[in-house]
Amino acid sequence: xxxxxxxxxxxxxxRSLTSIEVVVDPDSKKVEIAKLEEESAxxxxxxxxxxxxxxxxxxxxxQSEVERVxxxxxxxxxxxxxxxxxxxxGDRDSAAEAEHEVSVLKGEIEALEVRTLLGGEYDExxxxxxxxxxxxxxxxxxxxxxxxxxYERWAERHGYPIEVYDVSYAEEAGIKSATFTVKSPYxxxxxxxxxxxxxxxxxxxxxxxxxxxxxxxxVEVLPVVEETDHIDxxxxxxxxxxxxxxxxxxxxxxxxxxxVRITHLPxxxxxxxxxxxxxxxxxxxxxxxxxxxxLEKARQxxxxxxxxxxxxxxxxxxxxRSYVLHxxxxxxxxxxxxxxxNTDAVFDGDIDAFIDxxxxxxxxxxxx
Length: 368
Fold this sequence. Notes:
Shape: globular
Order of helices and strands: HHHHEHEEHEEEEEHEEEHH
Keywords: Coiled coil, Cytoplasm, Methylation, Protein biosynthesis
Strand content: 15-25%
CATH architecture of the domain at 3-115: Up-down Bundle
Organism: Brooklawnia propionicigenes
Coiled coil: 52-115
Strand order of the largest sheet: 2-3-1-5-4-9-10-11
Distance between the termini: 34 Å
Radius of gyration: 24 Å
CATH class of the domain at 3-115: Mainly Alpha
Helix content: 40-55%
Largest sheet: 8 strands, mixed
Structural class: alpha+beta
Domain Prokaryotic-type class I peptide chain release factors: 244-260
Subcellular location: Cytoplasm
CATH topology of the domain at 3-115: Methane Monooxygenase Hydroxylase, Chain G, domain 1
């Protein structure tokens, strides 16, 4: 990025930020913030905990959105002034500082621009993610564990809390499945583009002949159910089984029958939770997972009725990304064609470029 190009870059960033401000509409959000602040100050707010959580969560989310846009606008205005002063006084240090700030602003504005594309019904919610090993035996189970770590590292990079509901370990290595939530505004909208079948090609560490192995793992992403969703799950529609929690060993393994498996009889959906300390907590967590899956099933049924599902590329089970470690190293998204040769960084959670490309691809696909 040359200093001479900075005025044009700043002009383009100003245009992008203006478009974002139109979508975010800080003024209307400030009106809602004032109303929510009044509600949150009510002395009886926490008499209704579900409503209190809704109010405080919505208030925090709106304040964060407005502050982020206003902060970017202020910084963009400031860097423009800094660049003008640097040009007038021939100050190279100030010009270098402006160049660095423009580079940082460019990344942040582009990231926020992607966020404005998340306007789906449930995009603002936390994400409920399930990873399952598929074809490929022990390599697939190991691959599923690699993906679990990848998403955990991605969340850690962004400071997003994760709550693990259930991990089913494979016999030799890796996992059969894992279910967890990512708790962050727009986590569902962001991670929903990760849904599909992921493919790994490598020399298998479990093959004593050192042969190349292809294995598959599936990623399912659902919006977390909220109190206002009213997903009824009558007790007569479920079967609850308890069992002993399992794990790879060690003192942390639960030795009581506190793990819970719930079968939804009308649909055949099965969910389990074993990571909480008590059977009651595990049942409550498993019910939340079941409700999320029923909510997603209802959404899919509505889409099918309206024939709104335009692309098979959004469906569960569609192959969407390849991770090749042999004979060359490359991770490639098969929908967007975005690729990188830095496979280590990807497995360490550096997947933002893939997610951003996926969101933009989905926006173009939906508009087609």
